[in-house]
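hey
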């Protein structure tokens, strides 16, 4: 008699590993009411634009229009800056402990409304709900809590007694972490006594407009935070405005360069957080399984739409085969699809334009002779999608080794000695971040001293903490956000008139 089999072997391995997953969709209704059209938030009120041009924001996973919003005119920007200027006198005169109360209140409301914000962000941006729920929104709240704590301790921040705010801050942010970039800009600005006009990116305005509601809910005095929507034209009007004292920009290097030129000779203080092409460096003594997790997190987190993404893997030649085999096995388990499904690892590419940029650069990688590999995975029929992609046989001169792809695409290079790793890692115009995987502490310090990057992670990657400064080197920009250093961008530390 045949022996009874208690555990049935599956006939075929389901995609994504031994076990298949039942869909676990989050409800779009949790995002709350999305209006059909939005104006700006100026002086504590939602107001219409002075112009008639409207833009549309679409859900990149479905291509459905979520809402229309205003293309901010020069006049709109002028009104917003005037509202911020008017509010500045009272806001900057408040004791730090009073400003802190508002920031703590905002942080707590963000926590209370976390699910709503996470779903709205996933719908507007395309990123997986697992990330907005577990990373973006908790980080946003943490940033407000952290800078709330600084508001009454500025005398002890190392910038002399009674450091003064700058005035009105004009802030322009990108689409890859919409609410998180807003928090990185607004929390330190308010804690230090500045007022702000912020322009969100044109493909992701919705969570900034929802944040405006949160400012009202927190009872924030009118005009302390103003949100003006629109594309680069609105951004340029804001950064050029003569009554703005401080410009904070996060976005691409070409636009950062244009803003630096625009502001040259003015008295405005400028901080720039720009692009990157980080090296994630794996030595032969690294714990390979952990390193593979770090490589995956480094480049596939947020669809690779991360300025500090580990988009160049530098692997020591002796472990190349082992690392690449393990990496391919791991990549085959990544689940690409509906951002609102809690099982999804890789969501939608933010826009058709970004998908076209990724496609163009990866085609160039193949044309220049690199070997392309992606796991088998089915992509949804509508929306903007890109398979997780690996390029081997990459030379330093290839465009995919030099240019920021800003998508789920990893270029693999090899090295033999630590010196060669440093030389290759630094062979880029950028210098935002880097990762080092090795069990030797001395080697981590040796590498960190030589890598031209604002942030160096050791045996981890893409770790963000409000207490830690973040920022660039070379063409990745200047100025720091986060930590005590992040206060300096919003304080008059040179005791000059602004
Ligand atoms: P982008 O530079 O095209 O746009 C960023 C923002 O600038 C948007 O709000 C846009 O409307 C605005 N803008 C465009 N032209 C402008 C102008 N002339 N004057 C003023 N504002 C203008 O970049 P993007 O495509 O939205 O974002 C992707 C880029 O941002 C990537 O290069 C990425 O590396 C970078 N980024 C950097 C960081 C960082 O912290 N260093 C963080 C996120 C994104």
């Amino acid at each position: 008699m045949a022996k009874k089999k208690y555990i049935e072997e599956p006939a075929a391995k389901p995609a994504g590993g031994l076990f298949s997953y039942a869909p676990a969709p989050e409800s779009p209704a949790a995002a709350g009411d999305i209006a059909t059209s939005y104006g700006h938030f100026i002086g504590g009120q939602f107001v219409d634009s002075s112009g008639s041009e409207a833009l549309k924001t679409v859900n990149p996973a479905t291509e459905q229009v979520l809402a229309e919003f205003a293309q901010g005119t020069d006049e709109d920007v002028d009104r917003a800056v005037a509202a911020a200027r008017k509010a500045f006198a009272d806001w900057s005169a408040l004791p730090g402990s009073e400003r802190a109360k508002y920031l703590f209140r905002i942080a707590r409301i963000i926590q209370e409304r976390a699910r709503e914000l996470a779903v709205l962000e996933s719908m507007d941006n395309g990123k997986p709900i697992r990330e907005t729920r577990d990373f973006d929104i908790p980080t946003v709240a943490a940033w407000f809590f952290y800078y709330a704590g600084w508001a009454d301790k500025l005398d002890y921040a190392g910038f002399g007694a009674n450091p003064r705010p700058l005035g009105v801050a004009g802030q322009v942010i990108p689409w890859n972490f919409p609410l998180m970039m807003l928090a990185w800009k607004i929390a330190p600005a308010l804690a230090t006594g500045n007022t702000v006009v912020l322009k969100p990116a044109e493909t992701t305005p919705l969570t900034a407009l929802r944040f405006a509601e949160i400012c009202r809910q927190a009872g924030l005095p009118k005009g302390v935070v103003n949100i003006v929507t629109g594309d680069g034209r609105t951004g340029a009007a804001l950064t050029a405005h003569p009554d703005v004292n401080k410009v904070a920009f996060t976005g691409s290097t070409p636009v950062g360069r244009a803003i630096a030129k625009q502001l040259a000779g003015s008295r405005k203080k400028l901080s720039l957080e720009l692009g990157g092409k980080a090296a994630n460096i794996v030595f032969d003594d690294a714990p390979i399984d952990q390193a593979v997790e770090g490589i995956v997190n480094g480049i596939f987190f947020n669809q690779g739409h991360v300025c500090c993404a580990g988009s160049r893997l530098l692997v020591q030649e002796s472990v190349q085969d082992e690392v690449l085999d393990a990496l391919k096995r791991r990549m085959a388990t990544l689940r690409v699809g509906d951002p609102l499904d809690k099982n999804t690892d890789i969501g939608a590419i933010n826009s058709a334009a970004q998908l076209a940029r990724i496609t163009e650069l990866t085609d160039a990688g193949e044309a220049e002779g690199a070997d392309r590999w992606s796991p088998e995975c089915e992509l949804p029929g509508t929306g903007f999608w890109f398979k997780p992609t690996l390029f081997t046989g990459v030379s330093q001169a290839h465009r995919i080794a030099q240019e920021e792809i800003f998508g789920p695409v990893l270029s693999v290079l090899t090295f033999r000695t630590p010196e060669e790793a440093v030389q290759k890692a630094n062979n880029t115009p950028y210098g935002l971040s880097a990762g080092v995987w090795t069990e030797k502490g001395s080697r981590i310090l040796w590498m960190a001293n030589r890598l031209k990057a604002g942030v160096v992670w050791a045996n981890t990657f893409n770790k963000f903490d409000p207490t830690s400064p973040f920022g660039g080197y070379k063409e990745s920009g200047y100025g720091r956000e986060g930590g005590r250093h992040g206060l300096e961008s919003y304080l008059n530390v040179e005791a000059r008139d602004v």
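The chain has two domains: 28-274+476-492, 279-465. The domain at 28-274+476-492 is CATH 3.40.605.10 (Aldehyde Dehydrogenase; Chain A, domain 1).
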